[in-house]
Amino acid sequence: MSSGVSNNSADLRELRADFDGDTLHEECGVFGILGHDDAAALTALGLHALQHRGQEAAGIVTFDGDQFRSERHMGLVGDHFTQQETIDNLKGPYAIGHVRYSTTGEAALRNVQPLFAELDGGGIAICHNGNFTNALTLRRQLIRDGAICQSTSDSEVVLQLVARSREKKIVDRFIEAISQMEGAYSLVALTRKKLIGARDPYGIRPLVLGDLNGAPIFASETCALDIIGAKFIREVENGEVVVCTPGGIESYFPFGKRPARPDIFEYIYFSRPDSVLNGHSVYDVRKRFGRVLAQESAVEADVIVPVPDSGVPAALGFAAESGVPFELGIIRNHYVGRTFIEPTQQIRTLGVKLKHSANRAQIEGKRVVLVDDSLVRGTTSLKIVQMIRDAGAKEVHFRLASPPIKFSDYYGIDTPVREKLLAAKYNLEGMRNYIGADTLAFLSIDGVYRAMGHENGRDNENPQFTDHCFTGDYPTPLTDLSDDVDTRQAPRLVETG
């Protein structure tokens, strides 16, 4: 970008925060396929299905038997990978791809994945979903030892460790590298002969294995298999490394086996409703969240209204359980892009209406229950509550289909710092007062677990899911947050083009 907007950059960031900041931003999505003539096109389609997981950048790397080919761009998949010329340039039957929302490293083309490195045994491309909680520590050690880093992405640390391994086989080098990593990850790597998929020891981030006419596929979610007509084979297990070659598929468990703890937020918010995770329909789970929420916090009302779009399944479940009618009392504008409007206070106040409008006919004179999936900063929620009041609602009750978010995430979800999380600053009454609702209630943590099929709720000794945003129970070390580690990401090179 040119420097002409720099005077307003802070205001623009704040304006975007007003529009978009009261939510948990997406993580990333990965896709890979081995041995298909249309590998690049299928990868582009798979990434399109995973676009909800990251809208900042997209990239594809292919291998044609002789050369690796790369296309990486800032922006949406549809902005760059719908042109036949682009797909034709990505020759080869092997491909991996990535959609990104940055949680480590700045938004710049050099951080767009897949990342590629030339090794003594040939090239390797790699992409990942998640976040390594010791990447900064390892990165600085690598630099002290002479490594030259070309990005600020923590994914590059894996490439550096693979390159430095003295193991002979690429699979062993890959395993040695990821064995040094902490945190949450689903990794897909491509070499001249192999497609490799790996999931962290707790299975925090999702990864599935599929098949299309004999071509093995890795994807973050099953919806990416569905879009290309591929068959779902199974979940990649927690701590598993799966190696696909033209000769077959091999599986390794280099970390031993332990109980899985997938991230509960995949069910609450991140995954597409039509995906299936660990045998659970995401859509059905979200409806069950709404049912349990209604059991825990019923209120006299005339209409149940979802906050679009993520609150819709929970609101359907809430309405079914409570017997109160479900109505689309808020209409979402799906054609909102980045605003070019100067961020004056008046525009700031009107900002929420760019995305949501009240359906007055379904609200006026009624007691309304608003149902949403989660509450983060509260800035958008208070505007929606006011919008419903302005449309003539008699009462406004707010219900959240997840517990209060009190702790930051370090596993690939872009949460605000803890001081900006509403539930970290206020008690329930303080939050209710802040957003201006008549009543406010959250789904309990045990309610979440009951909705997931665990009738006794959360096993506090051995939790069945990763739920640190609610409980502060982080399943892995957070090495980069220790007192003796400088966590500032301060790249010396700033891209201006």
TrEMBL record:
Binds 1 Mg(2+) ion per subunit. It comes from the Bacteria. The active site is at C28 (nucleophile). Its cofactor is Mg(2+). PROSITE patterns: GATASE_TYPE_2. Pathway: Purine metabolism; IMP biosynthesis via de novo pathway; N(1)-(5-phospho-D-ribosyl)glycinamide from 5-phospho-alpha-D-ribose 1-diphosphate: step 1/2. One of its GO terms (molecular function) is amidophosphoribosyltransferase activity. Transmembrane segments: none annotated. Residues 28-247 form the Glutamine amidotransferase type-2 domain. The keyword rRNA processing does not apply. CDD domains: GPATase_N, PRTases_typeI. In the C-terminal section; belongs to the purine/pyrimidine phosphoribosyltransferase family. This is Amidophosphoribosyltransferase.
